[in-house]
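S.,

As promised, the adenosine-5'-diphosphate run. Input:
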Amino acid sequence: MISVRDLRVSYGGTVVAHVPEFDLATGQVLGIAGESGSGKSQTALALMGLTRYSGGVVTGSMKLGDVDLSTLSSKQWRAVRGRQIAMILQSPRAALNPTISLGTLFGRTLKLHGVARAERHARMEQALAEVMLHPQILSRYPHEVSGGQAQRFAIALVAALRVDVLIADEPTSALDVTVQSEVIDVLRNLRESHGTAIVFISHDLAVISELADQVMVMRGGEVVEQGTTEQILREPAEQYTRDLLAAVPVIGRTR
Ligand SMILES: Nc1ncnc2c1ncn2[C@@H]1O[C@H](COP(=O)(O)OP(=O)(O)O)[C@@H](O)[C@H]1O
Ligand SMILES: [Mg+2]
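Predicted complex:
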């Protein structure tokens, strides 16, 4: 599905993120862990073709199926984002336009990405059911929903767009622990019912281990450890990785 080789993001010649390689198949989840400033978001932005807007330069290759994303023009990227690859962020409410209802936003987003009018309503209904939101939420405005509902709504958009790959940058970091696990459940459902491949980013390795098949640990822009989630949890090679695991206690977990 997605295949990355020697990806580097740099600003003015300084490399801020370097990912040697990863491959992600349909329905698989890659977790990227690391402390603040380790290069996680810059990696995410590179995978979305967005670093150019902040002056970042990307080298290396990122293939989505047969298409080498690293060679796409800005116009070509616009046709890929929202159709093949999408991103959700830490604070979905901040990204929503406060003056339009969620239903209007949902309809416009589907239209923008080429979903036929006749199909939009059914897609919305199905997607809301998948993220366990009542259709009544469509009449609400962003300030009228909770952070957890907003994040599930963002995932409903992704489900309705039927993208192949979702980049989720700290999607649970602003949420309470109980709400965090609802969002994880919804993402798990997305991968299972749509086969969406997910890049799940968090500073909290314990949260990542709930969902990820493979884990990449970043520090100072470099990947310091990489392997299956089981390997990384059972035998972390680096003390840094152990610290990321111990950083946040998760209620109800015993290890
Ligand atoms: N526009 C920019 N210009 C220069 N450096 C940047 C820019 N954006 C981010 N960086 C640098 O990239 C590094 C990685 O940042 P980031 O990927 O956001 O970290 P993380 O998401 O892991 O907290 C940081 O050291 C940051 O200073
Ligand atoms: Mg970040």
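The chain has one domain: 26-51+79-246. The pocket of adenosine-5'-diphosphate (ligand 1) is lined by residues 11, 16-17, 34, 36-42, 54-55 (CB under 6 Å).

- D.
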